[in-house]
Structures are given as C-alpha cells and as structure tokens.
Amino acid sequence: MDLKNLTFKGGVHPPHFKKSTEEVPIKKAKEPKIVKIPMQQHIGAPCKPIVSVGDKVKVGQRIGESDAFVSAPIHSSVSGTVKKVAQMNAPTGKTMTVVIESDGKNEVHESIKSKGTVESLSKEEILNTIKEAGITGLGGAGFPTHVKLSPPPDKKIDTVILNGAECEPYLTADHRLMLESPKKVVKGLKAILKVLGISNGYIAIETNKPDAIEAMEKATKNESDIKIATLVTKYPQGDEKRLINAVTGREVPSGGLPMDVGLVVNNVGTAAAIADAIETGIPLVERIATITGSAIKEPKNLIIKVGTPFKDIIEQCGGFSEKPGKIVMGGPMMGLAQFTDEVPAIKGTSGILVLNEKDAKIPEPKDCIRCGKCVDICPVNLQPLFISRFSLKDMYDMAEGYHALDCIECGSCSFICPSKRPLLQSIRVAKREIISKRRKS
Amino acid sequence: MMGGLEMENKLIASSSPHLRSDETISRIMLDVLIALLPATLASVYFFRFNAIKLIVLAVGASVLTELVIQKLLKKPVTINDYSAAVTGLLLAFNIPASAPWWIPVIGSMFAIAIVKHAFGGLGHNFMNPALAARAMLLASWPVIMTSWVTTGADAVTTPTPLAIMGGEASGATMPTLTNIMVGNIGGCLGETSAIALIIGGIYLLYRKVITWRIPFTYIATVAVLTLLLDGGFSAMTYHLFAGGLMLGAFYMATDYSSSPVTPKGQIIFGVGCGVITTVIRLYGGYPEGVSYSILLMNVAAPIIDKYTSPKVFGEVKQNA
Asked: What are the C-alpha distances in Å from B250 to residues A220, B116, B200?
C-alpha cells in the first residue's frame, strides 16, 4: 500500500501561518508563581479535589480524582501550598479549581519513579500507568486515553494511527515535538500497540512538515510494526475520522466511534506523554503549546505547566505587540475564544493564539448567494447553507432532516463562505436544540 | 502590559472558526466581469458603437435600478458587489446589435426590479434575471429581438446560423466555422464569439467561481444529442459554437441562486438544459433554445436540490 499524499474528500486550504514558530525550538516556560488547576480538563466526569487549603503538595501529586471510568485524575504541576479551592474560570467554562502557590523548589512527589520500559511492563501495567498519569488526548478534545485503549471485547482493534497532521493553521507544537523528540513518539506508539495487543501502527503527518516526516522516518527505520503515512496538506486532515478515511480508506459510521472500524487514533503529543509516564513516572502536568498570532510579540513553542495563567505565558513571549482583539485556546479553526487572559492552561491547550483587532473583527454577514461552496467543501457531505437557514428560522426538525447532528464542527463552511455567514455557529445552535429535544422526549 | 481586568470587556469571544477566507461576493462578481471581458471586446469589435451603446445602457440601468429600489426599500445598497453590473452585462449580451436604446433599459429594469428584488434580492431569485428579461423582451417585441445584423460598420440584416440550419432563412448560406468561432456572424451581442466566451469560462473554472459540472454536462449533452439526431459531426459543431450555448452554459446556467447547489443536482441540471435546448432547436418552433431551457430548469432547481442530497459521510454503513 502506498502511504504517500493520502487524503479525504472535501476540505479547505486556509493559509498556514506557521512560519513564525515552525523553526523555533521548544523551550521550557518560566516557573509559574501561581497555578490554577481546573478539576475538569477532559471529556467525562469532573474530578473532585482531594486537597484542601493549606495543604503542602509536590510535583506530580494527585490533587483531583473521580470514581467514574470516563475521567482522568489531575496532578499538581508545582510544589507548594494550596491557597484556594473554588469555582473559577477555565478555558472551557467555569469549573472547580485548585489554586497552588509554588515554592519554586519543584520538589517531586515520592510516588514519581520510573515504571520500567515498554518491553518490561505487561499490557495491564502500561494501561494502569496511563490511567494513573491522568493522560488525556492532547490534540484538544481531551478524551481520557485509558478509556480509548480499553475497547469493549466485541470491538476488534487492528490499527493505531498517531495523529501528527496538525492541520490547524498557526500551531507547530506537534511539528516541533516530532522533529525534536521522534524517539519518544515512537516509544509511546509502541506502548499503545502493546496495550491493544496489535502490531499495526501508523504515524500520519501532513506534507507541509517535510523535516518532521524525515525525522519520524529515521526514528522508525527499524520498527517493522510502524509505518509513516504522509497526508495532503488540507484542513481538516487531522480530524480523527478524516484521518482514518485517508490512511485506511475506512468510513467510521455516522454517530459511531473509530473503534467501530477497528481503529484507535491518538495524538503524537499523547504518545509522548505516555512515553514520559512510563520512563520517568511523571504524570501529565505539562505540555507543549504554540503561543502565536498577530498580536504576540515573540511567538514561541513552550513547555507549559498545567494551571499557568495565559497571561503569564503571553508575558514570556514579549507580551502583546498590539492591542489584542481575541485570545483563542487552540487553533483558529476549532479553538475556543476566551473572554479573559486570566484563564489557566489545561491539558488540552495545544496553543494560545492572540489575534490583533483587525484579525479578530467579525465580518459583516451578507445574504446567502447559494454559491454552493459550503456544500462542495463539507468533509461530511452536509449542506451547511440549508441547515443554517432552517436553524435561523427555528425549524430544527428540518435541520435534523439535513443531518445537522453529523456536523463535525470543523468550521470549513464558515471559512469558505463568500457572504461571511456564521454557518457553523447556527448549525451548533441547531445541534444543541435537537439534542435537548431528544433528551426531553 | 495590560491588566486582565482592563481587557475583559474588549476581547471578542465568538464561535469558531476565527479565520475566514478572502472570498467575497464582490470578488466573485468581479471575476465574472473579468471573464466576460474578452467577449465584451469581441462584441465591440464586431458590432462597433451599437455594442458600446447597448452595454453601457444595460449595465447603467441595472445598477441604477438596484440603487433606487434599495433606497426606496431602505435596504443596504449593494451595488458595490457588482452583481447588478453582471446582470446588466449579461442582458446586453442577449440583445441583438440593432435593438433601439430603450430595449436594454426596460430589460434591465425588469431583470433587477421584478426578477431579482421582488423575490428578495441576490441569492433569492428563482430564475436567472438576465434570461427572464430576455424572455420578456422577446415576448413583447419579437421583431426587434430577432432582427439580426451583420458584423462590421455597414451592418445589414442577416439570419443567424442556427436559423439557416433550421431552414427558416431560405437561400442564405452558412457562415464558415472560423467566422462562427471568432464571432463574425449575426446574433446577439455577446453570444457570437464562442472562443472569447470559452476563454472567460476557463478563467471562471480556474478561479473556482464555477465548477465543471453544469457547463460540461450541458455542452456534452447538446454535443451527443445533435451528433446523433441532427446529421453528424458538422451539424454538431455548428450547434455547439453558433448559438448561445457557450454563453448559456458558462455564464447563465451557472447562476448561483437559480441552479442547484448539490453536486449531483448540478449534473442533472446541466443534462436537463442540454436535452431541452436540443429538443427546442431540432423539433421546436424556435431556432434557438438555450434561454428557455435554462429558464425551465431554473424552475426545477429547488426540487432537484431536494432529491439529490449527498450521502452523508458514514451514513450507509450505520443503516446496514
């Protein structure tokens, strides 16, 4: 099978905007003086804080947990004293947050020690390590990784794809990771393959990162179980289901999950976090993020500690070069706009994008001219113009008939629309209404 | 460094995506005008001052009508998006060079006021405004609208090649294919130069303003049907290049708001236009069938859209 220039149907070609950080090596961010660690950083049940005000904590110490299966424990990213446990603003909304003042010593908790190697550990031990380390998908959605790696027995997994597409404009964190630590990524993938008991792994990378492709190819030269797949540079190539379709040709059923077609997809960053958790025992308390955008003075790729306020991180990048109009967590296509820079970085913070007022300006929507571009580019073959029209008229049953719920919210339709209509925004409204109606009935 | 509090109320926290393409309505319409430039120049070259007069009047009346209507209705004025100018130019292309000055003026007013704005403006018209206006003019002033003249300075009356083919102009000889291709023939202002229209059509395809689906299927359908039903290759060539097919296929049938948006629907639409055009030309009372075929398919576009929804990704397998 040829694994070059794979792709999917539809999609758009936004400008890359990666120039300012793709050649900037990853650096460790400065030690934060205060961290605000939200108890909900993942999809699933929120954690309950297990520390209280006045407690001394160390790096890697567990500070939040939940009994639910779909959840991931949360650990302290600094050593110091718990100052406050309260509801606070997090990038994804208000949530219970543990505020810790760092003592600057970075003392590591006693429980943190190497768990061994991928070869020496059993699959159960690796899975447990992943679970204990609180690892969640680092691509942005934040699904607990141990859940993904525990498919029900009737779902036979035969393939793992590591997602190194990084199709969001601006972001270069995964790019730099693959370039600087390719061995770690491979180690993480081997751990995942071992947990699933299979030997068919791919690392999929968009062709706009030739140096990362080269580095990963070199690192997997002697790995017979791992192949590098290169992808056409097109958005949303890194969407899980587009990626599966591009690499394997399989189509995840509407409303289904990758495991329904025998696949598990993890981000390259998640694989690196798994490798770290096995090798050093350190849970997921820091991650690589790209801090960039038209209003950032010195764009950088930084290793940031979970809980560091955006403000402190932005300051380390020279602060704002001009008045910020918008602060986004993640990339410009799917990222979440923030209403304050006081929110902390979380496990899913792949980037902090600060746009100047000009870039942040919301264009004036005009009437739909029925050009059909949104229909042409929709990666799931929807007709955004019709769904949006019904949604704006509160005709949610009609919107449902046009498969609103199949929308993956990639934003390609809003991006391409020459009338600058808020297509995705109105489709989101329809989805919410349809789902809440289903719950009621 | 600005403080967080100070900033809070000034950040825009809108729904993603936070990045928009540089596509705009005016850019699309400008592309259509650019694409029509070669054919415009050709018509001015062949029909001299008459062409300039009719084009200026049609475009001017279109833009002015839009301005007046939007002012009267207290709506935002959108003449800067060039869509009225496109309608005016296309209408001028559909008028014989010998037409009097008031023909393009009345046609433009009808196209913009009735066909476009009475139905809600850009994107809401269910028929192509320029074609609907042509149909109205043809029904109201049939003699003016079918009086063709020869090209050049000393214009005299001449039948169109398709009329000659249809046997409606006995005694007239068919122009050569070269003259047909460059446009040195009788006909409407803009539909005569097939080459100029094709160059513009390729530009529209390159700029992704239109896709291949409607023009290609339309032209291919006419080609196949005339080849089979009207006596072979030479008849087919005249059918393709002599009448309004290139103008209709590239610029009129592709009108966004009166054609389907689904890929499959656009193919059905193109084939339908081709079938009706051929039927009118070969078996109907008119020598030309492009405008009526497109208008008929315009009316069918909503129902075509309704029954050609694309298969949603992953849809079939879930039901299986």
From this structure: 51, 20, 8
Instruction: Sort out which chain A residues have CB atoms less than 8 A from B257's CB and list them.
Output: 369-370
Instruction: Tell me what pLDDT residue B2 has.
Output: 46
Residue A135 shares a structural domain with residue A260: yes
- Domain limits for position A404: 373-440
Q: Note whether residue A136 is domain-resident.
A: yes
Tell me the pLDDT tens digit for each residue of A58-85.
999 999 999 999 999 999 999 999 999 9
Please report, for the domain that includes residue A199, its CATH number. 3.40.50.11540
User: Which 3-state string (H, E, C) describes B267-306?
Assistant: HHHHHHHHHHHHHHHHHCCCCCCHHHHHHHHHHHHHHHHH
The answer to the question of residue A174 being in a domain is yes
Contact A372 B256 (CB under 8 A): yes
3-state secondary structure B79-123: HHHCHHHHHHHHHHHCCECCCCCHHHHHHHHHHHHHHHHHHCCCC
Does A380 sit within 8 Å of B313, measured CB to CB?
yes
As a whole number of angstroms, the distance between CA A349 and CA B87 comes to: 49
**Using a CB-CB distance cutoff of 8 angstroms, which residues of chain A are in contact with residue B124?**
367
Structural domain includes residue A346: no
Q: Which two tokens stand for residue A365?
A: 């929507």
Residues A262, A134, single domain; the answer is yes
The answer to whether the beta carbons of residues A403 and B60 sit under 8 Å apart is no
CB contact under 8 A, A376 and B27: no
Domain termination residue (choose one: A249, A279, A309): A279
Residue finishing a domain among A279, A309, A341: A279
Nearest to A332 among B18, B260, B317 (CB): B18
Partners of A355 on chain B (C-beta within 8 Å) are 18
Q: B22 touching A, CB under 8 A? A: no
Which residues of chain B have a CB within 8 Å of the CB of A336?
Answer: 16
What are A102's two structure tokens?
Answer: 């760092």
Q: With a CB-CB cutoff of 8 Å, which residues 139-198 of chain B face chain A?
A: none
The domain tally of chain A equals: 2
The angle, 0 to 180 degrees and rounded to 10, between the axes of the packed helices A268-279 and A123-132 is 100
Residues A128 and A241 occupy one common structural domain:
yes
Residues 6+ apart with CB under 8 A from B3: none
Write down all domains in chain B, each with its CATH number in brackets: 25-305 (1.10.3430)
Instruction: Work out the minimum CA distance from A413 to partner chain B, whole angstroms.
Output: 9
Residues A269, A133, single domain; the answer is yes
Alpha helices in A53-138 (DSSP H): 123-132
Q: Judge if ipTM > 0.95.
A: no
| B18 and chain A in contact, CB less than 8 A | yes
Which regions in chain A score pLDDT beneath 50? none
Would the pLDDT of B112 be above 60? yes
Name the closest residue on chain B to residue A340, using Cα atoms: B8
| Same structural domain, A385 and A241 | no
Residues A245, A105: Cα–Cα separation, whole Å: 48
Distance from CA of A85 to the nearest CA of B (A): 21
B16 and chain A in contact, CB less than 8 A: yes
Query: Which range (A243-257, B2-16, B89-103, B278-292) has the least confidence?
Result: B2-16
Instruction: Find the radius of gyration of the CA atoms of chain B.
Output: 22
Per-residue pLDDT tens for B73-104?
999 999 999 999 999 999 999 999 889 999 99
Residue B174's pLDDT band (boundaries 50, 70, 90)?
Answer: confident
Q: What is the pLDDT of residue B286?
A: 78
**Residue B320: pLDDT band with limits 50, 70, 90:** very low
Is A302 among the domain residues? no
Report the mean per-residue pLDDT for chain B: 88
